[in-house]
Amino acid sequence: MAFNPPKTFGQPDVLKTITPAILIKVLTPCHGFLEANGLSLPESAGTEIDYLQLASILATPDERMDSHVVEGLHVITTVGTDPNFDELMDMARRNFIEVDLEATACDLAARIWLVAPQMLQLKDRQQMVGRRRKFESFRARDPEIVVPLEKLPTDLGPLQMDLEAAFQSKKRGIGCVVVRNDIGGEAHFLIQHGQPCKRVPSRRGAESTCTLYRPEQTDKVIYAPAHNEFRMNTAYPGDLRLYREKFGLHLFGDPNKFVYAEKYTLAPLEKYGSAALYCRDVGGMERVWLVDLEYVSDAALNFIERLRSDDVFQALALKNRSIGPDVDIRRAVFQVKFQGERKLRSVEIQPRNVAKYGRGEEAAIIEQWLHLREFVLVGTAAEDERFESVLALV
Q1: Angle between helical axes of 117-130 and 85-94 (0-180°, round to 10)
Q2: Residue 264 gets which letter from DSSP?
Q3: What SS3 state is found at 368?
Q4: CA–CA separation, 379 vs 263, rounded Å?
Q5: pTM of the model
Q6: Residue 74 and which of 120, 271, 344, 384 are 20 to 30 A apart at CA?
Q7: What tens digit of pLDDT does each residue of 304-336 get?
Q8: Where are the alpha helices (DSSP H) in 176-284?
Q9: Which residues contact 49 (CB under 8 A, 6 or more apart)?
Q10: What are the Cα distances from residue 190, in Å, to 93, 177, 232?
Q11: Is 133 helix (H, G, I), strand (E, B) or coil?
């Protein structure tokens, strides 16, 4: 199985941020691998670690290196960053880990890995899934019935068992974990489960062989009471229906509480033109550009045209063109500038219910803008039977 080590594995400066005694404990399971590559770990705290040689060895691990150490170094260097320092301190307190005044974020992560590696792995998964951009939305069948977060069941055991049985029936292996974390007035659920097995060519020393393994998948489900909807990011289309039904049943007592419905429309681009990008009434948002547009120009032949520019509306104006009336727009990509930030954020909308944008703190701002500019349909909770029939076959 191929492994691409993070760049931090080969950076001596990152390794130096971990207390030498703690780093040695992390590396101890693979001392034989290190010695075979010409590096002996110090036996006393007063002996200096050869960080340059250590970094060069860790930059090219192979199958002889202890997999737990490889995972540990990845998680430690990924999670052990300054923005996570306070959360790492909280993890350390909960596990009665002594922390001195000179501890760095990476040092904290290494100490936690030695005592409670599962906590660090969960944080790594949360960060990874937090970068997911594409979510599909499901609206409440009855928009008047909203369940506040504090009324949701706290025991996720029955939901977890039900999902595990479903994954086993799909030959995804045993084991399923559901974790809830409330963020910004929304309930975020991580679902860890197995994927179908994979067999890949691999090397065991000089020998050519095959490795059979079962990858793990982490999906995300978000319940947003403010909009009375579920948003889901999954690897398999069939899991959309599974989560809709099982979460509906175990959290709300109704497997059909949420239904597939149209949420997004790009009609404002035709109706208002560049005025649809106005954002000065949204706190935290400075400017929006339309940079990519796909639409059907010949319905009979399903001929799709694409316009790409740093500013599509300005480019059309220079050519005395505009987005024609009654155009079937299939996709639009916007660049958004937030106040106080230099980096532009991308927002992609695909009617009928697919949106792609970061799910960090700026997500609420983007949602507000989409609602104000009428890109979000309100009060359309009719179920799409055609889509449901497709999911039933998956």
Answers
A1: 150
A2: B
A3: helix
A4: 9
A5: 0.66
A6: 344
A7: 889 999 999 999 999 998 887 778 899 999 999
A8: 238-252, 267-272
A9: 15, 20, 23, 24, 41, 42
A10: 24, 8, 10
A11: coil
